[in-house]
Amino acid sequence: MNIAVCENSGAAAEQMRCWIQQYCRLYRVPAVLECFSSPTAFSASGSPFDIVYLCSGGSTGFYLARQLRERDPDCKIILVDDTQEYAVRGMRLHCTDFILRPVEFRHIVRSMNLALRGWM
Asked: 120 pLDDT exceeds 70?
């Protein structure tokens, strides 16, 4: 399972990485986790991912989600934003989940459970 976190804030990316790793240990999900500090770095990677947490926020995050959906229709996309504005737009892109900040471990558990539905 390849998982990506695209988050502008280093501290927030590290916290999410720790929670995702904790989830994977608890539920015995084999995973490789990669963090990106900007949408540009994520787009440049071109790597295939099973689950992507897009925490870029606003129109940048939504645009990135749209590009990702076009490139990989099977990828499980979880949008993370400060406002609910992009939640409906995310559903139109068939995103797996939307997390309204502040992110907590329980949000990671819910989104991972949704993303892994049918996988385990």
From this structure: no
